[in-house]
Amino acid sequence: MKRLFLTLSLSFLLIQISKAQITLPPSGSNQKSSVTQQIGSLVKVTIKYSSPDVTGPNGQSRKGNIWGQLVPYGLAPNNFGSANEIPWRAGANENTVIKFSHDVLINGNAIAAGAYSIHMIPTETGPWTIIFNKDTESWGSYFYTQENDALRIEVTPENIEYQEWLNYEFTDRQNDKATCALQWEHKSIPFTIEVANYNDLYVENIEDELKSSKGFVWTNWNAAANYALSNNTHLEKGLEWAEFAVSGNFIGQKNFTTLTTKANILMALNRNDEAAAIVNEAIPMGTANQLHGLGRTLITNGLKDKALDVFQKNHEMNDGAWPTEVGMARGFSAVGNYAKALEHCRIAHMQAPDKLNKDNLASAIEKLEKKEDIN
């Protein structure tokens, strides 16, 4: 019995050893590659692929023979696997796989978060078809089935400088979208990835974060409110956040920053009378520079009389110190009193602390002498 047990154990060990493989260079010198790109702070895109070179494994250049030969135009006949005709696997060896952490738009078309294999149908002239397929485990395109397509788009290839290795590059990167391109030899095949429901995504994430320890400081509630304001989105929710930054239990602080954030959101909601009352609360708390910035914001929002009031109070509170004379010039200019604006602008020009401000104020004086608004 003991001998039988040892024989079975040895057989099992030999089977396990036979499954283990030594590590060798990649097939055909097609290096495995990957690239990951954040789009904004939340969305992540990762592409894993095998990267062939133009020269090829035997050292002979295939330059000029990539497109239409090594990579056939149209669908290619298949001599292996279950598909009759196959698109190009957009790389080498195993499937090229792209993974989206969130729902996105590809060239304006919706695709859900998840992983997809990428295939392409090249053409000699005209647009190419890029396919995003749900089958990510098969080898290349040999088992491709159209029924598993999640999305097909058409794109126009672009000519680029010579590229020896096939690479996926993110050629343009913005907070809400990025352009990804397969680049090889002299061709680039780009497609745009855009965050779906961009502002909804961030507002939802902000709400979740404010429920955590991050919500125990007023600055984060104020930052959340400013996100809504600066992106002109979810303003009612932004007002809730601003109010909590001012007066939330144990957290809120009534200061110049929180009050003016609340006032700015009220102005964005066209609740100007309420905003003006909040501004009055904030004025005694502000520095000369803070009040100057507030006055300029009020002008931008069309509240010119209230802006002049802020500039005048700033001038009184700070005894005409820099930059309150500049504010007076802007305030009087906004309401059309160019004579008074010119008077204060000349004083500000004499006070200016550097050449840049002196030059800007010299230009403002020229405008005011022509009775032109300097805002």
Description:
By secondary structure, the chain is α+β, with helices and mostly antiparallel strands. The protein folds into two domains: 24-195, no CATH class; 198-369, Alpha Horseshoe (Serine Threonine Protein Phosphatase 5, Tetratricopeptide repeat), CATH 1.25.40.10. It is built from eleven helices and twelve strands. The chain has helices spanning 2-19, 198-210, 218-230, 235-247, 256-268, 272-282, 288-300, 304-317, 324-334, 338-351, 355-369; strands at 31-39, 43-51, 76-77, 85-86, 92-100, 104-106, 109-111, 114-121, 128-133, 149-155, 158-173, 177-195. Helix 7 runs antiparallel to helix 8 (304-317) and helix 8 (304-317) packs antiparallel against helix 9. The protein is elongated and about 85 Å long.
- Side-by-side strand order of the widest sheet: 1-2-5-8-9-10
> Which regions have little confidence, pLDDT < 50, spanning 5+ residues?
4-14
Compute the average pLDDT: 92
Tally of extended strands? 12
Distance between the termini: 98 Å
Can you give the helix content as a percent range? Answer: 25-40%
Major sheet characteristics: 6 strands, antiparallel
Shape: elongated
Computed structural class: alpha+beta
Radius of gyration: 32 Å
- Count of alpha/pi helices: 11
Order of helices and strands: HEEEEEEEEEEEEHHHHHHHHHH
How many domains in all?
A: 2
Percentage of β-strand residues: 15-25%
